[in-house]
Structures
1.
Amino acid sequence: MSITEKFGDNADLLWQSFINKEGLTPTQAHQFEQYLCMLRDWNEKVNLTRILDIPDIIAYHFQDSMQIVHHVDFTKLRGVCDIGSGAGFPGIPLKILYPDVPFILLEVNNKKVAFLESVIEQLGLTNIMVSNLDWRTFLRQTSHTIDLFMARASLQVDELIRVFKPVSPYKHAQMVYWASQHWQPGPQEEPFLVARKTYSVGDQQRSYAFFSDQKPQ
């Protein structure tokens, strides 16, 4: 069954444009299609997202998750953690792009955990796990190999920067926060902010805020 048969007229052209623009392999394109279908199906029983139109899912979920690759070389990462993964953004799209990089999806909502685990199984993703620990417990009780933490529409920055506390096993990792164009750091966050990068998604301007325990020289 084609995308048009599933989602209506013009969906095929839109989907092919997405595949071409992002340079997806046939396997990756199929995984994104499976993910799209599961997102729509599960949303009827689990509140995953308010964004359900195909163009908006592509722009504001898939591509918004994927644009970080223009600023981070994922091929060099030994481990990535998606904080407050929710319906899997940005973790699942990035895992599809980089199947060999280990990922942890951090999510406390049991229904969303079930969805994420089902997506991982259906898409055949490997070297990826879902953790239902809250953020503070994760920092206290785990010691995974993680180079990059990602937070998109989850916790506030003053909570996220707990990762840089002296007792944290992840204090030397990098953190990237999906921010609005007008977001400004508070006095707690400012010492850890090392870079801001702006980007466009759909008709919106947004930015990435990069944090580290060491300022660049």
2.
Amino acid sequence: MNEFSEVFFKWKASRALPVCELPDGYSLRTYRHMDEENWFSIYRAADQHNRVYSSTFREYFGANTDELSQRQFYLCNDGGEAIGTATAWFNDDYHGERWGRVHWVAIKPEYQGRGLAKSLLSAVLHKLEECGHDKSYLRTYSMREKAIQLYLGFGFEPHISNDKDLVIWQQIAKEISHPELASYRK
């Protein structure tokens, strides 16, 4: 499998939104002024596949702090340190339509594997629904097997738009055993 193949997932509003409570000692808050540095710190620690620069935040989210304060979440430990982030964003032209977007999900490595991403995903999906998005998607890469398993287990499904997407998902289905992928195995 091409280790950098983009893969897309979709979530339909007709599906019941999961509620995932945070474990004791963690809290969730929205964007605050100057959180760009927290976002950058989380990504620099969590993402070994993409190059993230101090300018990346503005490139993807712009400077609309009102929008960010409603749509961007930070997961904090018991000391108040931001250790994870995810954003309930949008794309006005995803396959010619306006879709909600689960965007830039990341948790610092030392906090991964504790189920915390589920709480972030739950908050983001609830916010997307609150913002009026009746369909949402997310993007990751084929080499992120743990993320793919998380999203499949959470209720996302592959979003296949063309033959190339289908081939990528067939390859993933050979490497990841998940009921949602059974129909992609040859």
3.
Amino acid sequence: MIYVVLGMHKSGTTLTSQILHNSGISMVESDNQDVSYDKGNKYERQSVLALNMEILGARDYEVRDLPNPKSLALTGKQRAEIREIIDSCSKSHKDWGFKDPRSLYTYPCWKQELPEHRIVGIFRPPEEIWPRFRWRGLRKRYLNPFWAWQFLSRWVEHNECLVNYMQDGNVNCLLIDYREMMASDIELGRLEKFTGLPLKDMRRKELYRTEEPPADFCLALAKYLMRFVKGKSVAKMMEELSSIRTAQYKQES
């Protein structure tokens, strides 16, 4: 089976991919023991990452200013590369997958070529993610209001995509709440049932931050503008994600 892990940056996609990979589902080209939440490779299949960046025309790894494109069209070369990745991984592994937050934008392109597969989605409130994006020093603090707006725009776009994919009746999907995953064994149990495999618990509380961050003026301002400029409510988005997750959980029980 092929597993596509989807979620906003810093939402737990690395942890999810790490659990799957260490439980027998190949998620990266090679085993890298020196992988952690704060270091380089985030359990991403590098061939998928490189192709996603090419498809999106990404100039660098900065995601704050990479909006969801209105439309994507694959070149013949890109489509051939997708097929080559799928063919190579399927020949090498019974169960495999890939994780790259950019796949929330490019998944429709991959879906055109993927055989039967499953989606594992994961979400996290923006308050817990924003501290990883904001500037902490004095030199660029004046940029934080604009960066908060960019960040929240990306958070909304990523999670709008996630909601849409979770509602696709043609693909078997599982939506995980990162906070619940770190607070109890419920989400790990759901993931185990979803894959049908005994999973290795890779959660490490000292690496995966779960404490509630202090209120941030820049993020609060971005939320206000998001609601009154774009008509999008972060609170309603979180409610929708939680509702989808709860509905799935009830069906599984």
